[in-house]
Design goal:
The chain is an alpha/beta fold. The chain has 19 helices and 13 strands.
Amino acid sequence: MTSDDVLKQLVRKFLLTYGEGAMEDVVDRIVKYLKYNISPVLIIGESGSGKEYIAKLLLSENEDYANARIISENCAISKGNPELLESKLFGHVRGAFTGADSGRKGLLRSASRGIFLDEIDKSPIELQNYLLRYLREGEIRPVGSDRIEYDATKKKLIFASSDTNLKSLLFNQLSGDYRQGKHQDNTYSLDFLNRIKRNVIVMPPLRDRLKDLGLITDYLIKQQIKDTVIKITHISGHTIQFILNHGWFGNIAELSDFIANGILAPERHGGHLVLHMDACMNYYLDHQPEASNDWLNNGQIKGDIVDKYLLICNKINSGEWVKDFDDLVTYSSGDIPIKNLPKVFANALYLFNLQCDLKASDDGAAKIEEIINYFELKKALKTKKAVCERLNWTGTRLRKWLTANHLDY
């Protein structure tokens, strides 16, 4: 395994992702930027999607990303008082403005490694020009001072924006908006845009990371209960169904709040303390504006079929199986061990996609039948070696088949 592969594994683990789909590009870019110590980097993503997690990766001084402490500022504080943020970053001299009773070094000089600047799209154009001078020359001019200083170390700057339309502006140089440096209510320095668009990470919203939902949910539950006396061991199937179907337009931050509310009212089922969010979901739905789930309408997750897949995954993870898909229709999915969440979510989505193929082709039906036959044989014959003998397969062929069907257990 190469050093890049090791770094990829660390990045995937920290970002709670399998690194597939849109997240594959995110992981690859982070690895490249870490390897070559690249700065500046612009992270574009919806609010709550995890931009600060990426900043932690890029600014951490070692591989202990989870405990990394970074210096961050939200550029939205500059609204109505542009000198405030300028002073925080570049420092000021005594008497520079009312209340400046003493001088201040500024974060650019005091930071050991770099700074994370969130909502850069809300920064004043004057500050963008100052930041551009710093990026080019390491130039620092404290507020109220005529003297220019130079930072030989040139700290790393990580910018972030929740203006998801900024990406189209950055790469559409022919538009009149771009030439004017304007977009909606924001005004940008054109030179600044040209400088920061070299290294861009676009963080996908949670609704485009369905397969990662199991990893994320598992992590959030453990984080919420680690400092409490609550020891939740299971999560109800209906709660998983809700998590799969909800749009999460507030992304990971919204899911975290949702789980925090559910932690307050666990229920005891069959000796297990279960995360069962019926009451919480009713409150949550009553207090949230209606929003259509795009992937629901596009046919990724539909209706009561999710229950089937939760059952399938639960059966797979418990070593059991069922013979007939029709038997699943009336089954209400039960409580699922928290430790199985990542696999349950991944399998639910994978098997659901196979089910969608049933209507379109015979291939999907054949794959599902093949999977069912394998688990029935494994249950009956106990060992993989016995299954291979019955199917007249080599061990290598079985491993390749399991890998191809995401059944690596």
